[in-house]
Structure formats: C-alpha cells, structure tokens
Amino acid sequence: MTSRPASEPSVQQRTLALLARLAPLDGYNPTPLPDVRLLRANRPLARAPVLYEPGIVIVCQGRKRGFFGGEVYLYDAQHYLAVAVPVPFTMETDASEKEPLLAIYLRLDFSVAAELMLRLDEFDDGGANAVRAKSSAKAKAMVSTPMDARLALSVLRLLEALASPLEAGVLGPSLVRELYFRVLGGEQGAVLRTALARQGHFGKVGKAIRRIHAAFHDALDIDLLAREAGMSAPSLHAHFKTVTGTSPMQYLKSTRLHQARLLMLRDGMTAAAACDRVGYESPSQFSREFKRLFGLSPVEEVARMKKAFALPYPGPSSAFVSSH
C-alpha cells in the first residue's frame, strides 16, 4: 500500500519559511530594495512610543498593536497596517524565541502611489464610482485592514524575488507596485487614497507635517506652520489634531525627541549633542520631556534599546523610528 504524498506547503507556510531565512537577525534586516526592510523580533515588547513614516507594515507571524487616537490598530498575520502620514503613537509586540515576530516594512514611494491612484480613480465608469467612493471616505492617517488571498500571494512573490539579487533587481520594483495596488485597491483603499491625495484640510495639515519633518531643528511655531498650511492658527490646531491625534506643537516635540533618540542610538551622540542637534535650547527641558515620553532618561533608553536589539535600520529616511 503506497503512502499518501504529503500536501504541499500553504502560501503562509512558504511565506514564513522565506521570511525566516531572509531575516535571520533580531531587528531590521536590509534587502536589495532600499525601501523594503524585513523585521525579526525574538522577544515581546511592552508599550513604547514610536513614530512611523508613511508606509505599509505586513506582519506574517506574531502580533503588533498600535494605540492611536483612542483606537487600537491590530496588525498580525490576518491584518496589515498602512500609514499615510508620519504619526506618533504607542505600540506593543507579541513575540518569542520559539515564535518570533516576522514582518515586512515598505517605505511609501509617493510617485508610485500617485500613479496607481490615478489609474484606480479612472477605471470604474470613467472614474465616477471611484470618485464617489473617495469623496465619501474620511481621510485617516493610519488604517489596519484584513489581509486577503491576493495580497498574501503578492507578499509571497515579493519574498521569492528578494531571495535572489537578480530577481530582486529585475522584478522587485514591479512586485512592490503590485503590493501597493492591492493595498490602495483593497477594503480601506479609498480611505488611504483620500489621505494620500492631500486634498482639503488633510492636505493642508500634510504641508505642516512635511515642514516639521524637514525643519524640526529650527525655531517653529504655530503661526509659521499655519502660514505653511495656508490656514489660520486655530483651524490648523483643530484639523491637525483630527489627523494626527495631537497638537502641532506636541507633534513637533515628539518628532524632535524621536529624532534625538535615533541620533544617540544610531550615531552614538551624547544626550547633550542630540539635544542641541534637534533644536532644544535647554538640556534640562530636553531631559524632562524625553523621560516623560519614553519613561526613561536618554542614557537609560538608549541602553534599553541596545539590549533589546532594537537598532533602527539606517535606511534612506530617519523618520521611521520603532522599537520593533
């Protein structure tokens, strides 16, 4: 009697096997594509402040929870996270040595996203259905969305290409574009497209956010940011809080502190040097506000990050600062 052949591995099993091989190190693992990073976390992480730049986070094993604006954003093997604008929030991770967290992070390429958004908006009835869907969708800075079978296959194809430098170089960009298409055309794609279109108040707030990230070390105030956004100061304050969950000046403070942590962690700067680099005039104020945000002094926080193997990957943008 012949034995029954073993069933072929599922899409999820193949994805996990590839991801585990491509991300052998705890922390961020680079890939041949500069905007794609692979993450492994071998231990859980309690709630910690993070700042995400625009991008897509696909968790294939383990679980992350983000807490932002009174909502909980779950991203695990059944959900992915998409971020339209840089937002400070708190995040916790479920992981272990036996079952590490394995994830893919794609930094958003706005030129690719914009081209796909135009195609999506033009497709149905000359764009009528898409325009109606987008106009009825409320822009959100961040969304957590269930995975579907087509997106799961797109993820697998991208990982297969990343396993070969040749395939990554030749096929990688088109496979990343396919992932964007699945996300922007997915269940909450209209919400993301509304946000990324930068229209109305959301777009004006986006101008202020971009100014903060480009010049966080300068002397910025609410009036200057309001002029940048083309809004009155009270209007910017109200709409900024709707988009990011915080006020413009609190957002600026959070951005400076996250950048200072990155400078100390990645570049080995002292707290005093990082304080000066990000625009603080008072070292004592910097230390107080750093401890208020992260719960530890600058020296203690850097030591904790190093011990947790949570060094952020020094990629093309320093805005993505996460402790896994």
- What's the average pLDDT? 84
What overall form do the CA principal axes indicate? globular
Helical content band = 40-55%
Number of strands: 10
Placed side by side, the strands forming the largest sheet appear as 1-2-9-4-7-10
Please state roughly what percent of the residues sit in beta strands, choosing from under 5%, 5-15%, 15-25%, 25-35%, 35-45% or over 45%.
15-25%
Distance between the termini: 51 Å
Catalogue the unreliable spans.
125-136, 310-324
CATH architecture of the largest domain: Sandwich
Quickly describe the structure.
The chain has 13 helices and ten strands. By secondary structure, it is of the alpha+beta class.
Architecture overview:
- With 324 residues, the chain is of the alpha+beta class.
- The chain has 2 domains: 9-197, Jelly Rolls; 200-307, Arc Repressor Mutant, subunit A, CATH 1.10.10.60.
- Helix content is 50%, strand content 19%.
- The protein has 13 helices and 10 strands.
- The chain has helices at residues 11-22, 110-123, 128-136, 149-162, 165-184, 189-196, 200-214, 222-229, 233-244, 248-267, 271-277, 283-294, 298-307; strands at 27-30, 36-41, 45-52, 55-61, 63-68, 71-76, 79-83, 87-94, 101-107, 142-146.
- A 6-stranded antiparallel beta sheet has the order 1-2-9-4-7-10, covered by helices on one side. It has a 4-stranded antiparallel beta sheet with strand order 3-8-5-6.
- The longest helix has 20 residues, at 165-184.
